[in-house]
Every structure is written in C-alpha cells, then in structure tokens.
Amino acid sequence: MAEAHTLTFLFTDVEGSTLLWEKNAKAMSEALVRHDEILRTVIETYNGRVFKTVGDAFHAIFSTAPDALEAALEAQRSLLREEWEETGPLRVRMALHTGAAEERAGDYFGPSLNRVARLLSAGHGGQILMSLTTEELVRDELPKGAGLRDLGERRLKDLFRPEHVFQVTASGLPTEFAPLLTLDARP
Fold this sequence. Notes:
By secondary structure, the protein is α+β, with helices and mostly antiparallel strands. Helix content is about 35%, strand content about 30%. It is built from 5 helices and 8 strands, in the order βααββαββαβαββ. Strands 1, 2, 3, 4, 5, 6, 7 and 8 form an 8-stranded mixed sheet that branches.
C-alpha cells in the first residue's frame, strides 16, 4: 500500500475556458502559455510543486498551508496584472484543502483530492476558496492585507460530510462573487 502524506492542495481552473477556445483558439493558446508560466513560477516560488495539469487546470502540493495560501494570492494578483489582449482577462478559480493523500508515481489519490476538487467546482473565476482544515492552519498567520470570509457549511457533490467554506479576501482582488455552486444553493 502507498504511504499517505498530509499536504495542502491547490487546485486551479480557468472559468469559461471552453467558450474562450471556441471564440478564438489561437488567442486562447497564446493566453494559456502565459497562464501556465505564471502559475508554475508562483507555485514554485512558494515551495509548491505542480503534480498534474489537465487542460487549463493545475493541481499543486505544498508542505505548508501558509505557502499554499501565499501562492494562491500571488497567482491571482499576477493574473490580474497580466495584459490578456484578445481573450480578455482569464478568470481563474482556486481552492485550497489540507489532508492526507496517497502518492503513486508522482500523482496523488484519496478523499482529500476529491474534497478540494469539489470545493474548486463550487467557486467562481477570481475566487479563492478554502476548507476549514486549511483555514485552521492559516488563520493565525494570514499574509498582510489578507482576510477570510466565512461562507458557512456547504454540501458539495458526492461528499457525505458538508464542508465549512471560507473565501480568501485581499486588497486588490475581487471580493464579490455569485453564490457558491453547491447542493444547498437554490436557483
């Protein structure tokens, strides 16, 4: 059996990327090269490692939750500063969760990854969400100008236990988003 490690996971995804590809594949291809460079550089700067990419989605690991939070904040700031030209701004949603996972051949598996993936799917472009587990690890050492907005307990698809969700706030980043895309959201 593979050995389990406790890590903080950062998952990211470009909101509306399918439509952007349909509108202008060449521009989106060029924008994604820059998106990938920004994310890889920021993740590595904060001691993280990208272990998987799927299309425009990144899956990264960090040994500490504060490093993962710093990386998410800096990635959002860098994406906002970038000149995106034809595609317009790329809006990237991000989620952070800390938990145990099994590592096999450089990839990670287990319930923690399911939880961070479901948390990611509840968010919106430009938003950083985090689980209660991660919030407990960062709340006493938030980066200067950063805060946490309590979004309450939410039911996430296919997960038995609801997740207490927090939105990361920081100066210079958007703070207002549509309601989370969770099972308890009402149309």
